[in-house]
Amino acid sequence: MTMRGGQRGFSLMSAIFLVVVVAMIAGFAVSIGNAQRSGRVLGLVATRAAFAAQSGLDWAVAVVTDTHACVPGGATLSPEGPGLDGFVVTVDCVAVAVTEGSVPYTIFTLDVVASSGAEGSEDFVRRRVSAQVADGAP
């Protein structure tokens, strides 16, 4: 059996095309897997930041209700516990004296920020929670 001149090397071209397509699909699958893994890790760190911020808020509410005074300005905490290492929690407090009728009381506005990592880096995360606490309100 003899080959015609135009059919030589056609199987080589098919094999190269097939290898290139399979390599592209494998590369795409690896990049998708890395993106999913990275997304899960960032979601976990964001959840930890939310818990760190909430723990800072709980601490600030306890201080305000026990002392009937604001937390010292710009108080910084380093929460302890599983998964909270590396977080810095900053608490700001503003007290406003209010008189309603003849009853005086104080409203404390608490603003808590938990962050980890260097701002601008890919592993930076920050979460903020706020609350108002009325002390002595009717």
Overall description:
The protein is an alpha+beta fold. The chain has one domain. Helix content is 42%, strand content 30%. The chain contains 1 helix and 4 strands. It has one helix at residues 10-67; strands at residues 75-77, 88-100, 103-116, 125-135. The protein has a 4-stranded antiparallel β-sheet. Strand 3 and strand 4 form a beta hairpin. The chain is rod-shaped, with a radius of gyration of 30 Å. The termini are far apart.
- Encode the helix/strand succession as letters: HEEEE
The helical percent reads 40-55%
Provide the β-strand percentage band.
Answer: 25-35%
Number of domains: 1
Write the layout of secondary structure elements.
Blueprint (H helix, E strand, L loop, with lengths): L9 H58 L7 E3 L10 E13 L2 E14 L8 E11 L3
Antiparallel strand pairs: 1-2, 2-3, 3-4
Describe this structure in a few short sentences.
With 138 residues, the chain is α+β, with helices and mostly antiparallel strands. It has one helix at residues 10-67; strands at 75-77, 88-100, 103-116, 125-135.
Supply the key terms:
138 residues, alpha+beta, 4-stranded antiparallel β-sheet, 4 strands, 42% helix, rod-shaped
